[in-house]
Amino acid sequence: MSVLPLVFTSGWASGINAYAVVLLLGIFGATGVSDEVPASLQRTDVLVVVAVLFLCEVVADKIPYVDTVWDAVHTVVRPVAGAVVAALLAGESGSLPEIAAGAVGGSTALVSHLVKAGTRMAVNTSPEPFSNIALSAAEDLGVAAIITFAIFHPWIAATLAGTLLVLGLALVVFLASRIRRFWRRRAQRREEKRRTRQPAFPSPGAPPT
Question: Has this prediction a pTM greater than 0.85?
Fold first, then answer.
């Protein structure tokens, strides 16, 4: 069976939470649930490291503005992770060239990451933090559900991931005005901080106090 649908789905999920993808695939492989997971993802040291990073993401991703910084840092991490995981899956399966799989996984991860980051910018325009928490929790549960489903029904999972990717792009376009508002507010805060850091000097003609 072709590994392409699992490659695509893992790429989409990696763009949202790469650590969850590696952790879930590693656990599924180590427990014998799936024989398509390469041994390198099942190693205990790999699972421990990604588990710690996953917990860090769970916390950081639910704090307004901290999540935006976290997304900025992971603009490179998530696509690279998506490409590496896809190439490893293809190498284990042998049904798809590793370079092609890496290209599919990496590009899909990049697009889904941009959708996630753009949506989060729009959500951060809201003054309350609960929308961030709810959206982040939904993303975590969605990644876990899709990856688990992909192990047993890869083509259906890939169809769902593709649908969510298209809907996410449409949502980002719809929320573009809120994203621009987010960047304006961020620029205003930086300007206010810059002004408060500047010492206040009396004008040359002002009498001494």
Answer: no
